[in-house]
Amino acid sequence: MIEAAVEVVDLVKRYGSGPGGVTAVDGLSLTVKRGTVTAVLGPNGAGKTTTIETCEGYRRPDSGTVRVLGLDPIRDRAALKPRVGVMLQSGGVYPTAQAAEMLRHVARLHAHPLDPEMLLERLGLQSVRRTPFRRLSGGQQQRLALAMAIVGRPELVFLDEPTAGLDPQARRATWELIEQLRADGVTVVLATHYMDEAERLADEVFIVDHGKVIAAGSPAELTARGAENTLTFSGPPGLYLDSLAKALPEDAKVRETSPGCYRVEGTVNPQLLATVTSWCAAHGVMPEGLAVARRTLEDVFLELTGRRLRS
Ligand SMILES: Nc1ncnc2c1ncn2[C@@H]1O[C@H](COP(=O)(O)OP(=O)(O)OP(=O)(O)O)[C@@H](O)[C@H]1O
């Protein structure tokens, strides 16, 4: 059997002790398969960064085990260093060094680096190549940190909120780069609180809340559980929905979510759409803003916790 790229079992990590202490990670387990993009998705404070930093060898578990490429991240740090890419925050770099110079420097430390110029181009950093790190904008610093994490062609890369605060164009460029990494066989572990990012990029998602995994699966598996799709439309308030409910298949439900806003949940297929529109036609109702929406990871999180992912 091929060994997992990352295996976290019952990880517990506390900050401080006594009543003022915080249990940041509370018995978290996850497995990252090689060659996949795996997202650790959760709201602020869920324990994502602590988990990632423990995998990177920066934090020691209070209990539980962490294996990275079959090794111990703290004990085997030297062996893992050339094989694992991490995005360092500003503390890890020389603030007065120029962007391109820093990237070339990191590239030279590796046997078979990617071309630094290609990375600067892909991440839209060519125009600031001579700018000292500390004068780059937050988003530029973040993209440079990403470039430095992957320039050495790691087998595995940990990305903690790689697109937080980026503008849409930089976000797309980062997503494309992550997709390219996967195509090249790199394993990517991505901590994010953006569900659209997890949905678009991840093969496997671990939804984390209060330091625990509360759901796991591919985005398709997670969003397919329960109501697969929804159909919404608006019309006059107070429509008599019992007769529409009778016309719908058994697994579908309809309700008025707010006055004049209607939501049908179930397997939305062309037949269901036809049933709803013909019921509307028979009742003289013009269904405005008729839309079919797939259930999102945000909906999954809301159902599991009663809260929204983005607070
Ligand atoms: N160095 C620290 N000392 C004390 N408490 C900490 C420390 N780092 C994190 N915490 C606390 O641990 C909990 C988990 O934080 P963590 O940063 O791991 O979560 P996160 O999911 O990455 O959140 P965010 O998206 O906000 O970074 C939070 O309650 C946080 O306040």
From TrEMBL:
Recorded GO cellular component terms are: plasma membrane
Its membrane topology is listed as: Peripheral membrane protein
Alphabetized PROSITE patterns for the sequence? ABC_TRANSPORTER_1, ABC_TRANSPORTER_2
Query: Which key words tag this protein in UniProt?
Result: Antibiotic resistance, ATP-binding, Cell membrane, Membrane, Nucleotide-binding, Translocase, Transport
Biological process, per Gene Ontology: response to antibiotic
Q: Which SUPFAM superfamilies match?
A: P-loop containing nucleoside triphosphate hydrolases
Q: What is its EC number?
A: 7.6.2.2
A GO term, aspect molecular function: ATP hydrolysis activity
Q: Where is the ABC transporter domain?
A: 6-235
Q: What class of enzyme is it?
A: translocase
Location in the cell: Cell membrane
Query: So what family is this one in?
Result: Belongs to the ABC transporter superfamily. Drug exporter-1 (DrugE1) (TC 3.A.1.105) family.
Q: What is this protein called?
A: ABC-type xenobiotic transporter
Originating species: Carbonactinospora thermoautotrophica
